[in-house]
Amino acid sequence: MIWIKMLWIRLFLSCLLFESAAGSLAWAVILCRKKLWGEKDYFFALVVRKTALLLYAVPVTFVWVCMSRIHHSFRWNVVVGDFIKGTVPGMRRFFGILFILWLGGLGVMAFRYIRKGLMVSRTLRNGRRECRKKYEPIILEYQERFSKTGFVVYENEAVCSPISIQQDGKEMILLPVRDYTEKELRMILEHELNHIAAEDIYWRWYCLMTICVHWFNPVLYRQFQDLICCQEIVCDLRSSMEKPWFTKKEYAMLLASQSAPDLELPPTSGFAEKKKEVLT
Fold this sequence. Notes:
By secondary structure, the chain is an alpha+beta fold. The chain has 11 helices and 6 strands. The chain starts with a helix and ends in a 7-residue tail after the last helix.
């Protein structure tokens, strides 16, 4: 019985390694293409980055390489085949140790992110308050335009720049406590609502869960930052399209003023992450 369990552990770890390698290699190809030919279409760039991240969860390469060498008997719950026959007695202990190490890393990463998420959530919840009355007409206008999102807007002393989050089952936009002009408020709402409409927050949650599972892969951490940067650039492109309330130059100036690379919370613009990629 222990032998059978060890076979399943070996299959699981092998699948995990294949997924991790596939996702990392896909991102390496994306970076090579970008370096050789540049990034001309950021909307397409975001799609291929998301596809590369999906390879961490979908065992495409493992199925292609190994499944033809594995046979399963449902009657005896036994896994046989060339892939399994290659296992020597010492490998069972080796894979057992690897599995324990993986479980330990998974627990540490999950605890770290859950703890940080609870701390940030508590801070943001305690510091929020209703927006000023003069903002209500503009907010109501955007709630009608983006009726599917069902968002609410609060001011919060804990944030240094506008952010969009999901809290208490609602989509929220949190604004720093300061006086905004109508033009500035419209630019901020355009940016944050484009994030909400594109469901960027769900992709970031998916990345965090993927990092917990593939914590041993250093490439994935950089890949996550690259996804965030690409999301911000695409969001800025959507938000800066021809609008009757502000120009592209005014929008770019607001981005520059809101971007700060040393903020505790994620910056609201890719401008803070990669200053070389300034869109004109």
